[in-house]
Amino acid sequence: MSIATNADRIITQRLVGEVWPPLADRHAYRVDADGDPFLLPGMGGVTLGVHVGDPATGYAADHLEPGLSVRHADPAANMALQFLSCVGNEVVVQSGPSAGARGRVIGQHAYVLVDMADEAMNDVSTGDRVVVTARGQGLAFDDHPDVIVKNLDPTLATVMPFDTAGDGRLRVGVAARVPASAVGAGAGMVSEFANTDLMGAYPGLSPDLSLGLETLRIGDLVVLEDQDHRFGRGFREGYLTVGVISTGHCHLFGHGPGPSSILSGPAAAFEIVEDETANLRTYFAAMEASS
Fold it and tell me: Which residues contact 99 (CB under 8 A, 6 or more apart)?
């Protein structure tokens, strides 16, 4: 499936970052939604064993960031890395024993998140330099002017479940629907930065906190109901946002697996179709097969 885009007018830039170490402070512990203290790994560094297609919840982790967590030491350069890196962009390790290893951006959080095979990551360490081939900001769907596209690699868009329905709406396949009540941390921020944490996915905590999101997978396409992420992130009745789950398990209340926004617009501009295969694992494999 494919739709007409302005991909021939999108420019490409090479951005540099490095694998950033996990960070902590001397107070160590946080408190979960039931008031229980926890001290768990999650953000920063190199996280092995969790990839696109794997469960997003159920780990002894907090703010789980799969794969490589990448940023730049210069604050302004780091913001460019956040704003311009797009889901699906290729990333190449430039230093250390794993130099030459390749992966792809799966979204933004406090860092730009990069998935690659464990065998490629086994020798990657904090401080290793990476290059992101950044391409995608400014992408537009020619026949769907009401839908704003962001954070999306144009080549990835050609293999994703997007097409034009018979009535002219943009048909999009998603693995899950997310109610507006699940939207937590990230609301009010620009939608090119970090992601939107989803509450209601706290396996093992109070059952009254569940919103049915415990089965989310890393890389799932999801639709956020009544969310307008065209020029920021906020509640707006009658709008939809489509995102890609880029982070995993959280214990901190108001946080959870988070989608990076890729499409947003009036609900009337979309035809949403449930598709349990709507996951980056499928689309990354299609990109590799066509390259």
Answer: 93
